[in-house]
């Protein structure tokens, strides 16, 4: 590193501070001068300015923020209530349904449970492009209408292997019929609006 010999070094500054000592007791002023010289030497070595320059900046007036009257874009999933529930998810290795504890929206637990099962399903693809869940609380029925992009419609589900049928349909049945949280006594499966039994 190249040094600029025009700048005084720490040694030169420290040497220029007069040493005054009266008897065995050091002078406090001397210690202050040494520390000041050390500070200046460090500042010079780091290239820091030895003076502070203040540039006052006008502080902007704090304005009152407006609260939007339309709150439809607020994510209600953060503020809505959840309840614990059990969902039976197929284990692809053991071909068994494994109960999983989950939190579901208190206002739509059946829809949430079916969504969990559909996300976990890793079986054959029969062209399911979506699904709709309708719950009839009075009759304790849940209708799951699968949107299928297959000309065979509901017959496409018959082509699923028994393991895949079990993974999808039995997981939904087991979840909705055995857990009191859902209050469902019957599960009805539809494909493109047409009922089918599997």
CATH topology (level 3) name of the largest domain = OB fold (Dihydrolipoamide Acetyltransferase, E2P)
> Strand order across the biggest sheet?
5-6-7-8
What would you call the shape? Answer: elongated
Helix-and-strand structural type: alpha+beta
Q: Could you name the CATH class of the largest domain?
A: Mainly Beta
Oligomer: single chain
Number of strands: 8
What does the main sheet amount to?
4 strands, mixed
Given as residue ranges, the uncertain stretches (5+ residues, pLDDT < 50) are 1-17, 19-24
Order of helices and strands: HEEHHEEHEEHEE
Q: Averaging pLDDT over every residue, what do you get?
A: 75
The tally of helices reads: 5
Estimate the strand proportion.
25-35%
Structure description:
Helices cover 30% and strands 25% of the residues. It has helices spanning 10-16, 28-46, 76-79, 109-120, 162-178, and strands at 21-22, 25-26, 82-91, 96-105, 128-136, 141-148, 186-191, 194-196. Strand 7 (186-191) and strand 8 form a beta hairpin. It is of the alpha+beta class and 198 residues long. Strands 5-6-7-8 form a four-stranded mixed beta sheet, covered by helices on one side. The protein is built from five helices and eight strands, in the order H-E-E-H-H-E-E-H-E-E-H-E-E. The longest helix has 19 residues, at 28-46. The chain has two domains: 10-46; 81-196, Beta Barrel (OB fold (Dihydrolipoamide Acetyltransferase, E2P)). Helix 1 packs antiparallel against helix 2 (28-46) and helix 4 (109-120) runs antiparallel to helix 5.
